[in-house]
Recover the amino acids of this structure.
């Protein structure tokens, strides 16, 4: 897909070194608004590092990251979140003793002037924002199909539901771009189906989705386009059917028989 409009998310020449290792090597990715883009590649290819560079957890050694034309390089992760980029992590990071609603409200508070301290201790300042925050939080719980459990503790959810709660928390920051790092990891087939519906609903609500995922049937089913990394380099990009037949992609996976990515 070519477009004359500025892509919602663009990285150019993105490079990140860890000592002698080039984890991300001169990568260009351009994602139009409204797309579901999968980022795939064998373990160690540089996928999570790419997300960490986009979200400001690491600073690139070289290259540009921009959202809707605004440069994100050098901004604190919280600023990048405010600019409209939200993410989930490869491993679950939830407050297990807190309710679903509280977990999601913490996500939303990056949109208000209220601090996490205010939210948790329910200060006066917080109560003025709280009704709006609560309504927003319920809306995102609805979107991920967990609204009926809003008052449960996060720790009481199944694994798949916890992963969906993490997505809800990311959505509560009202992102324009949502980055998901292996959201289906460890999910059973039913949970994967729920996830698929959820990701499609998120896209339909206007949010651009970037998805790192090893579950190839899932990727083939929902991605509009796929970007393939191997040893830090972009080796292919295209629609699912082109990628499936791309000899370089096949070789990248087959060359690493121990890798779970080929499954
Ligand atoms: P992927 O998510 O594609 O599996 P990563 O982006 O996590 O790969 O890692 C890419 C490469 O960078 C790997 O070789 C990994 O060991 C290395 N790496 C990632 N993060 C760090 C770090 N903080 N320090 C040193 N090396 C790292
Ligand atoms: Mg990773």
């Amino acid at each position: 897909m070519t477009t004359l409009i500025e892509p919602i998310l663009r990285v150019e020449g993105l490079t990140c070194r860890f000592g002698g290792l080039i984890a991300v090597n001169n990568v260009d990715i351009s994602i139009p608004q409204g797309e579901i883009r999968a980022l795939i590649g064998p373990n160690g290819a540089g996928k999570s590092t790419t997300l960490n560079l986009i979200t400001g957890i690491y600073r690139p050694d070289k290259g540009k990251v921009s959202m809707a034309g605004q440069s994100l390089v050098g901004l604190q992760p919280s600023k990048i979140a405010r600019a409209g980029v939200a993410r989930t992590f490869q491993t679950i990071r939830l407050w297990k003793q807190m309710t679903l609603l509280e977990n999601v409200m913490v996500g939303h508070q990056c949109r208000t002037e209220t601090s996490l301290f205010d939210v948790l201790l329910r200060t006066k300042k917080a109560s003025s924002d709280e009704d709006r925050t609560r309504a927003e939080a319920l809306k995102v719980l609805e979107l991920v199909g967990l609204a009926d459990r809003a008052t449960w503790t996060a720790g009481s959810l199944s694994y798949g539901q916890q992963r969906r709660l993490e997505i809800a928390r990311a959505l509560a920051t009202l992102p324009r771009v949502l980055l998901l790092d292996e959201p289906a990891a460890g999910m059973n087939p039913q949970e994967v189906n729920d996830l698929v519906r959820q990701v499609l609903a998120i896209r339909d609500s206007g949010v651009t989705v970037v998805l790192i995922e090893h579950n190839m049937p899932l990727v083939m089913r929902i991605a509009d386009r796929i970007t393939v990394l191997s040893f830090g380099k972009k080796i292919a990009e295209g629609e699912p059917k082109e990628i499936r037949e791309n000899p370089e992609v096949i070789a990248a996976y087959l060359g690493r028989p121990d890798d779970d990515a080929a499954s």
